[in-house]
Design brief:
The complex is a heterodimer of chains A (219) and B (420). Helix content of chain A is 68%, strand content 2%. Chain A has 9 helices and 2 strands. In chain A, strand 1 and strand 2 form a beta hairpin. The longest helix of chain A has 25 residues. The radius of gyration of chain A is 20 Å and the shape is elongated. The termini of chain A are far apart. By secondary structure, chain B is mainly alpha-helical. In chain B, the strands form 2 sheets. In chain B, strands 3-4-5 form a 3-stranded mixed sheet. A two-stranded antiparallel sheet of chain B has the order 1-2. In chain B, strand 3 and strand 4 form a beta hairpin. In chain B, helix 4 packs antiparallel against helix 9. The longest helix of chain B has 34 residues. The termini of chain B are far apart. Classes of the chains: A mainly alpha (219), B mainly alpha (420). Chains A and B meet through helix 3 and helix 7 of A and helix 2, helix 4 and helix 9 of B.
């Protein structure tokens, strides 16, 4: 009886692992891992490149401060919707729990990788800012998944980050943290609150509603 | 064909690209401020060229997205089975995207162009070639994005390609994006710009062959042509390509006591400068001969301006419409600048004259400089000067100006003692 119970437990565990591997494969997690590695290398190599100046003002914050979390979150969006959303939801899986864990895991992995591989402290910007921006970026992408679906989930975040990077000029005013949070130093509490708010709203919406079902099925 | 083009425009990314490009160019131009382009066609062309740094990757993003739609929807074979040749269909598709981007660029700089058109007085310098090459860069980005979208379809290909392009272009300065900062009255010779046009045209042809042709090796021909044009463009140091335009540097003066001189490229603001100088020097004019001076403005050729003279910086005071604001964005005041230009200090003397700088500040304060004194210790001296009778004040200032002009150290010392 004991050996039968142990065997049943082993079989159940094997089924769960197999299911997880299949799920990860269906969600193109390998593409995400390879892409994240490329982004980490890019951030490490070009993080200290001089930034481009527009007009008479020079942007003092590193380009990858905004773009590395944006790229990583866009890659994460690839994994946040399957080939057929409606078909997936018809299966007896606790999808809300799975999605919640998925978005938290994405944020944690990306933030860790970027913070660890970021060697630069350029004008006071470094790993702390990357972690904050990653958390916010994943939240925004998750929220966009609910509204726009998988194919264009990267677009609002990309547009926002490019706009902030180009338009915001020093000095950073105290009251502007609510929208200039991507370029605020890590010691700014308001910027962290905005990032966490985005993450909370986005991850809650994505966990509950999932990605909007669209006809675009390619990764 | 018109119907096909209209459907492509409506159903593709072109409409959104047009709106985004126009908004981005307009926003960037007005964000740069009047100091960059107000009253100057060359300045406007240079500003549009700088905005292409952002607009180019945006165009690339939309083009890559537009080009990958067939693969994303898995209808490539279905569309290829129609009677129209693939290259014709894709060429129209690319053309609509490129037209959307180009039109967006033109519409975006239209408001600024209207303002410049109303103020500018000098139209030389091949500025229109600079605008043309900026337009071509956007079209090249449309072709590059189209090729990337066709060859590497995917959800996140577009933003990744855009970011990588921005990084490479801003670092390597390829495509001739980085032209450096021109000085006043400088232009890019048409030969260099023609080389850039050739390089861009060959690049567009090569990228389109890669995207649209079934035999991709045809791209080798435009690629070879691109390499021929690219070599002189890549070898050229853009910062050294700018040349002086004698017509733009021609000296133009107006006004009397004081006389204000600018270069022809800046002549659009001469009348306002003369008017501002007149009111700034109103108090100084009460001293006979004190305002009989020539005020040099920034941009005036170095060969005509003594090195000790401090030119008036007017660019930070320019508004979008090309008129002058009293205060600049970083706080300098026009009146203060004119007074400092008209009331020289002893720094222009060849010999070492160590007169009291506080006297200079006191005289400027007397003349009405709102920004002096830098040194609080000059305030009592200025009050003592003001406490003299009107005639005595004017006589003192006249003696000061004479002493500085003749670099008379002894006279300056006496003047300093009188106010202590």
């Amino acid at each position: 009886m004991t050996s039968q119970t142990a065997e049943a437990a082993r079989a159940s565990w094997t089924r769960r692992v197999t299911r997880l591997v299949l799920h990860l494969r269906a969600r193109n997690v390998l593409v995400f891992v390879i892409g994240l590695a490329g982004i980490a290398v890019l951030t490490w190599r070009v993080g200290e490149w001089p930034v481009y100046d527009f007009g008479s003002s020079e942007q003092p914050w590193p380009f990858m401060l905004c773009m590395a979390p944006t790229l990583a979150a866009a890659l994460a969006a690839v994994t946040m919707a399957g080939a057929d959303e409606e078909l997936e939801r018809s299966t007896p899986w606790p999808w809300r729990l799975v999605r919640a864990m998925h978005v938290v895991a994405m944020a944690a992995v990306i933030a860790t990788v970027l913070a660890v591989t970021c060697p630069w402290e350029l004008d006071g910007y470094g790993g702390g800012e990357l972690v904050r921006n990653t958390i916010a970026s994943v939240g925004i992408v998750a929220a966009a998944m609910v509204v726009l679906g998988a194919k264009l989930a990267w677009a609002p975040l990309f547009t926002y980050m490019v706009t902030v990077y180009v338009i915001v000029s020093p000095p950073l005013t105290a009251g502007s943290s609510w929208w200039t949070w991507p370029v605020q130093p890590a010691g700014t509490p308001e910027a962290w609150w905005m990032a966490l708010s985005w993450f909370a709203v986005g991850s809650a919406g994505y966990a509950i509603r999932g990605a909007r079902a669209t006809s675009d099925a390619d990764a | 064909m018109t119907r096909v083009a209209w459907i492509e425009f409506r159903r593709g990314a072109s409409a959104a690209l047009l709106a985004t490009t126009a908004t981005a160019v307009a926003a960037l131009l007005f964000h740069m401020g009047g100091a960059e382009w107000a009253g100057s066609w060359s300045g406007l062309a240079q500003g549009v060229r700088e905005s292409v740094t952002v607009v180019g990757p945006i165009t690339l993003t939309f083009a890559a997205w537009h080009a990958s739609r067939e693969r994303r929807r898995r209808i490539v074979e279905l569309v290829d089975s129609t009677s129209r040749p693939r290259w014709a269909r894709l060429l129209v598709s690319w053309g609509i995207v490129a037209a959307g981007a180009g039109l967006g660029l033109i519409l975006g700089c239209l408001p600024a162009a209207v303002l410049v058109g109303r103020a500018a007085t000098y139209t030389g310098g091949f500025w229109w070639l600079l605008l043309l090459t900026s337009l071509m860069i956007v079209v090249v980005c449309a072709a590059l994005g189209f090729a990337v979208g066709r060859l590497i379809p995917g959800r996140v290909t577009a933003p990744i390609a855009a970011i990588v392009t921005f990084l490479v272009a801003s670092r390597a300065g390829f495509l001739g994006w980085d032209l450096g900062e021109p000085g006043f009255g400088e232009y890019l010779p048409w030969t260099f710009q023609a080389q850039q046009v050739g390089w861009f045209l060959a690049l567009i042809a090569g990228l389109l062959v890669l995207s649209c042709a079934s035999r991709r090796w045809f791209a080798a021909f435009p690629a070879a042509a691109a390499a021929v044009f690219a070599l002189p463009v890549a070898a050229a140091e853009p910062h050294e390509m700018w040349q002086e335009d004698p017509a733009a540097l021609e000296r133009v003066c107006a006004g009397d006591q004081p006389e204000v001189c600018v270069i022809r490229e800046n002549a659009f603001v001469l009348d306002e400068l003369v008017s501002a100088a007149d009111s700034a020097l109103a108090q100084l004019k009460t001293v006979p001969g004190a305002a009989d001076t020539t005020i040099e403005v920034e941009g005036n050729h170095w060969s005509m301006v003594p090195f000790s003279v401090e030119p008036v910086l007017f660019k930070p005071h320019l508004t979008w419409s090309g008129s002058l604001a009293q205060q600049s964005s970083f706080g300098s005041d026009l009146t203060s600048q004119f007074l400092r230009a008209a009331v020289p200090s002893w720094n222009g003397c060849d010999q070492d004259v160590t007169a009291d700088r506080l006297v200079h500040q006191a005289v400027l304060r007397w003349a009405g400089d709102p920004q002096f004194p830098f040194d609080d210790a000059a305030e009592p001296l200025a009050k003592r000067l003001k406490s003299l009778t009107a005639d005595a004040q004017r006589a003192y200032v006249s003696r000061y100006l004479d002493a500085v002009e003749s670099c008379d150290a002894r006279a300056l010392k006496v003047l300093a003692e009188e106010l202590r």
